[in-house]
Amino acid sequence: MNTYPASTDYFKAVQFPAQAFTLDSLRRAQFASDGLGLPTLAMGTSAVVFQAAVDEAPSALRCFIRSDASSRERYAALGEFLRDHDLKPYVTATTWFDAAIQVNDASWPVLQMEWIEGRTLDQYVGFLVTGSDAAGLAMLADRWREMIAVLQRAEFAHGDLQHDNVLVDQDGHLRLVDFDGVWIPALAGESAPTESGHHNYQHPRYSGAIAWGRWLDTFSAFVIYLSLIALSKDQGLWHFYNSDNLLFEKSDFASPRGTRIWEHLEALGNSEVTRLAGRLAECCDPGWAALNSLEMTIEPAWWERQGPPMAPSGKMSAVPLMPGVGTGVLSEPPLPKPPDPSYEAISQPWPSPPNRYQPPGSAVTSPGISPAQPPGQLAGQAQWWETATQAGGPPRRAAPKKAPAVLVAVVLTILGIALSAVTHGVAVLLVVVGLAYGTWGWRRANSAAGRSRKPPLR
């Protein structure tokens, strides 16, 4: 069996689509390119993706670099499933083409998908956090919960829910990509995919082939939902983002309630966050297994409920409490639109949180904070929206004081006058030096003081 091509092999081939592809539609494809005219690409662990216009339709062409990533049979089953279940806009159909591209003297499959213009989930959350949009984060959490309810009622599991596989498109809708690990009833008897999902979103033990089934997404969907709810209450928690997660990491699931994120969630003092964090901690138990939907996992038992769950807007949630109740995708207002493609995404992780945390609404003081400090402040740190110069940059140099320079100038001047009777030349020199030094010191002190009052450059 031939070894699948590397990403660089595909990159070279698509520069000449008329020669590389075996399908007429792909031969005519117009590939997106960078400033040097070379095709742009996104690389993953199992495939490389190119953006192209195929018969004027914006498309993503996925070329596999591993033989075990997926198969024509799996995508054919997915296509048939989607014809019977309308899961738009969350999931859209894909087309598998056998032997569609020629690389290294062999032919390889190509997966054609709709190109989605938007932002990955972590980029979009960072955009909302930067804009201090608590309402937008709450709406995002609500939309996430609605989407998962729709998918799980349809018996669809993505298999790898994580920030890179969730997009928010330019119309403000959640979209899923990368369906290599999908579970649907038609695949129930098949072997589980070799990929077991992103480790910062999966149960420490109950994942991969062990969790292969209808409720495959429950744990990872819960992790994302709690992260969004918590961030809607306090955007300062975005300090835990490290470009490979939202709030939680693999180690947090192995030690529930024993790591810093759990402590910070508890310190928020928010009843909803506390309840959800407690239930997720219970799910982290090594013996836990996903036996139900996200909705049934996060909601208390019926005898504990005081009423139906409330959406962030204050209206009754449209998400059904029991499977089979409710219909279709909800016609709610879309999410705030993500920034246009020219927006510069956050390229570096946020600073690490300090050891002490000031919970929202707390009047308790500790070194570096005061009772008037804004809610959710990380103790001893400036708020997350303040610039690096204000929050953690080097301290400003103290302005030179005027008194020493003036005193030296006066002493030199008096000494010069006293010596005038002995030697006129030396006296004049001392007076001139004294006056010059005093003038220089005065101007320098004034100039530095003026600079220290100016706001930092942005």
Strand and helix map with partners:
Blueprint: H1 7-13, H2 17-20, H3 24-27, E1 30-31, E2 41-43, E3 47-54, E4 57-64, H4 72-84, E5 95-103, E6 106-114, E7 118-120, H5 121-130, H6 134-153, E8 166-169, E9 174-176, H7 218-233, H8 250-254, H9 260-267, H10 271-283, H11 294-298, H12 388-391, H13 402-418, H14 424-453
Antiparallel strand pairs: 1-3, 2-3, 3-4, 4-6, 5-6, 7-8, 8-9
Helix pairs in contact: 6-7, 7-10, 13-14
Which descriptors apply to this entry?
single chain; 458 residues; alpha+beta; Phosphorylase Kinase, domain 1; 3 domains; three-stranded antiparallel sheet; 14 helices; 9 strands; disordered C terminus
Describe what you observe in this structure.
It is a single chain. The chain is α+β, with helices and mostly antiparallel strands. The chain has 3 domains: 7-114, Phosphorylase Kinase, domain 1 (2-Layer Sandwich), CATH 3.30.200; 118-298, Orthogonal Bundle (Transferase(Phosphotransferase), domain 1); 402-450. It contains 14 helices and 9 strands. It has helices at 7-13, 17-20, 24-27, 72-84, 121-130, 134-153, 218-233, 250-254, 260-267, 271-283, 294-298, 388-391, 402-418, 424-453, and strands at 30-31, 41-43, 47-54, 57-64, 95-103, 106-114, 118-120, 166-169, 174-176. The longest helix is centred in the last third of the chain and has 30 residues, at 424-453. The chain is globular and about 105 Å long. The protein starts with 6 loop residues before the first helix and ends in a 5-residue tail after the last helix. Residues 306-330, 343-402 and 447-458 have low confidence and may be disordered.
